[in-house]
Amino acid sequence: MSLNPAYLAGDPGGVGLVESPPDEPAGSASGLPAGRPRSMLRLGAAVFAQNRLAVAGLVIVVLLVLFCFAGPLVYHTNQADVNLADAALRPGAGHPLGTDETGYDELGRLMVGGRVSLEIGFAAAAIATGIGALWGAVAGFFGGLVDAVLMRVVDALLAIPILFLLLFLVTIVRPSVTVMIVVLGLTAWLIPARLVRGESLTLRVREYVQAVRMMGGTSWRAVLRHIMPNVAGTVIVNATFQVADAILLIAYLGYLGLGISPPATDWGGMLSNGTNFIFPDYWWLIYPPGIAIVVVVVAVNFVGDGLRDAVEVRLRRR
Amino acid sequence: MTTPRSRYRLGVCLVAVALASTACASSSGGSTPTGGNPPGKTADVATWALPPNTVPNWIWPFTPIANFSVTNASTFQWLMYRPLYWFGDSSGGPSINPDLSLANLPVYSDGGRTVTITLKPYAWSNGEKVSSADVLFWINMERAEKANYAGYVPGQFPDNVTSATAPDGSTVVLKLNAAYSQQWFTYNQLGQITPMPTAWDVTSTSTTGACAALVSGCAAVYQYMLAQTKDLPTYATNPLWQVVDGPWKLASFNADGHLSFVPNPAYSGAQKPTLKKLVMAPFTTDSAEFNVLRSGQTLDVGYLPTQDVTKAKAAGSGPATAGPNPLGSNYSLAPLFLYGINYFPLNFNNPTVGPIFKQLYFRQALQSVVDQNSIITAAAKGYGVPTTGPIPTYPDSPLVSTLEKQNPYPFSLDAARAYLTGHGWNVVPGGTTTCTRPGTGPTDCGAGIAAGQKLSFDLQYASGQQTIDTAMQSLKSNAAQVGIRLTLDAAPFNTVTATAVPCSGPKCTWQLGNWGGGWAYSPDYYPTGESIFSSGAGSNSGSFSDPSIDGLIHATNVQSGTAAMLAYEDALAKALPVIWQPNYTYSLTEVANGLHGVTPQNPFGGITPESWHF
Amino acid sequence: MIGYLLRRVAQSVAVVLVVTIIVFLLLHHLPGGPARAVLGNRATPQQLAQFSQQNGLDRPVPIQYLDYLRRWLTGDFGFSYKLNQTVGSLLRQRLPKTLILNALALIFTIAVAVPVGIYQAVRRNRIFDYTATGLSFVCYAAPTFFLGLILVLLFAQDLNLLPAEAPQSDGVLPIFADFRAMILPIVTLALLSIAGFSRYMRSAVLDNITQDYVRTARSKGCSSARVLRAHVLRNALVPIATLVGLSLPALFAGALVTESIFNFPGMGLLFWQAAQTSDYPVELGVVLVTAVATVVGSLLADVSYVLLDPRVRFS
User: Is C138 part of the contact surface with chain B (CB cutoff 8 Å)?
Assistant: First the structure.
């Protein structure tokens, strides 16, 4: 889901690369682009704002963040003490969404779980995208042996089943939120790396980049100041999809029993726990976390789509 | 420009429709199934559901540790190759069953140092009689390859047999190196024997071996039989495995767990099979099995996962009494308990917290915050019994002492607090309790415990089971009320069993480990507990060591009668070598309406499909 | 081109070896060790020592690895004590089932996603487009285990239209005899990919429809349908081809959740159960198969990549 379709379709213009207008600030005297121009940013933001779905997605994400982080300040529940006498109550007085099988209030649990899901999602995506983008940019730009070695490392890591890595890490370290963030980040950087490598492969043959090198600019300078900003668009788009993927992966891990240890939980863990009770029909344990996951993933995808449209100015008419 | 608002609205409508339809679908999930034929429509074939994620994979009764399991022994090997003595009586209790045994009850003489076993007239399917040579074959094999046999304990059978002779074709006389408790010897030592046919005393398809006669001839036979057993696809075709003395013969075998049996026409037992075929069906998870069970079309004997019990049963009904059955239209519910106990060990050799664990008052406090009854009601829906000592409290038997029935350490936060404050701890409910009176006096914390040391421990437990999850969270929550901080760590079952093993030294860092299964007394059918509670025993996970208990355990091995057992039981129940946990049902068996003879079930997991009939 | 391919093949072999080394090393650092994993917690220290010694587990790790390598080259993938079968025979049992399930799911995905994507692009911003987008988002966002269970509940329990478990027969051909039972597993597995593929298809077709050459063709009198078939489709299928290449590893890796729910033991469950029971030979065998599939898939993807954009040299 994080591959850029425009690129794959062979868009000859490249992605995200737009010549800068002549009134560039000092420092790039020959009019070469030195990063994303301010007016491009404003143009992108305007395009984003016009995309109602993207705005709706952003609003939903913000609301969910508020619900999860500010909610417990308003709606107090005891998420530490088990209360077996009140286990698995239907929604009713005192418990708007009922209780789970250990007696915790489900609405409060949703807030707690949401905090964990969102934290892990955003943080893991940030780590993954950061590492992946740098790795891919370096590989694509330098080419040759560097590219081969770096990309074969990516291939090797991709070939190791992620379940194995996760199982291994779970047995070594107790799975807390921080551990899960690092683990997911370290397993998810591979796709952005490939993506950015592909982009920087084309970018490095761009005339302006060759001009930088001809003028004596070091390769690192070219990578950091020219390649990276121009793939920033794709990277940002990919990062948003990574958030969604991380939240889903955490859910999957919860189903496999590799998730966070109780009493902490996340939406995925709540959902997989709830699926044990489909037959006894404890619907209040199943649908709230399930819908929450669907809503946040869809909202994040809308935002990602909107960002992509903003980035691909050419292709926004569709 | 597109009109995202209408697009969004439509998208949301469709999503809502999709979810609503699934909501309608699952809201009827609690109703009894309609449609589908009732099982048993082929009135002479029964289909039995294997436990989830378990398939039989070892056919030779001489099973190594790696493959020893209830599935392999009780529900696979025993159908074809009867053990010398059968445990599990006709009312479902754990005592020996003379009717299903291949021999009469053993006779002890010479002060208990000589055992005479008289075989009943049973025949192998190839025409030969089940003879004393077959018993000696087993004993010799165990002598030669004891390291490779799952039930072997150093110093015990067959090391404690000084001579084994066969005066005639149906008598075996064993001379022992000491006088042993008759119950213990019969149940835990003779219970290991499965007579093997001379057809197996071979070293190739054409060469006979010499194992039944001489121990030295067994190594070659062992290698040959091992090679045959490792060849799974040939289980149903290899003529070796067709030589059976049990009521069933393997008709087809698939390594993925699909197998079927047909009756052995030469079976000598009183109850001959009436079914024409017994089919076993494997399942990946219990919910996959439950989906098939609900459809009511394939399975005749299956199991209900505990989380799918819709209504808890009435409080106060016996542990094995069936409550409301959500599949009542097609099946009847028969809860099955294995004869065993559930507990988790504390690592007495842990360098930092070992000294705390070694204090009895601490274990008493920790046991007193375990609310077994609430967990049984809430998590296991009533299908469980509390464990209060080494002897299973269900089914009742003369072995269960009054002390165990009364429970020396019931759930009581006040008692837990008293234990701790009475020994110099500052109890902080919701926080962490610390030691304020270090020392070795009667009201001090105890040897090796520093001032200010905290009651904060790591508890690793096996993930994947609802009941265990709930039990652990309940324990954490209750323990917090007296300031004992437990950090829970859910890990795969194998990780827990690999970590919670006897160890010592600075690397021995595990603290509490709960694999969720405790201990099932099989093949040690008489619960003397030497494998789990005596010093240095292989399965004494926490390295519990108490010389007086060792003495009492030894007494149960050498003194006949229940007095020694009761003494051991009471002492161990009070000594709390481990933290007892509720013993849950092994399976909530569902038996198709119309299939009779499945209950009462065997407390060691054995099935006797020869008694099943439609 | 040949030179490039040869270099890549050599690199792929190196990658596979590196993968196996990493996994081997990780396995031997798990707590407990392989002997304890096989013998369980009832084993005595002497039994553990004897098992280790009999199976060469007490030798240095590099020696053990080289021994494994040597046996792999002769076709001996090891023996699983827990399951009492050779790894080779386990792979032979499970791989065909996984291949069938995943291949059918992939075919189903393409068969549904391509027309849906095209139709969405051609009739964009109309009802069908919105519906398909909405459903595709839901399928993408709902975890597979959730969707699978709902499908079983709906179709197998309440409507009683389809069996609750996949065909239980041995071998591959009988699966086609009981095809009704494969429908739910295939659909469960495919839903996620259909969501992704159809979005890509839509996007790819749209990119091409707005191109100049399409306008030119139309202005020359070609009909829309002809333009679509002859020009747009060919270009738009290119990203699908790349995605299919990238899905190659998944064909071999199995689908854990689907196999679990529908009682269809394949490679996914084999690996998962081996990982849970620390059955090292099986884990290594499955990793080997998946690694080979991944590098082949990645090679194919890279080759198609280079074919797409001639400016990217073989470097």
Answer: yes
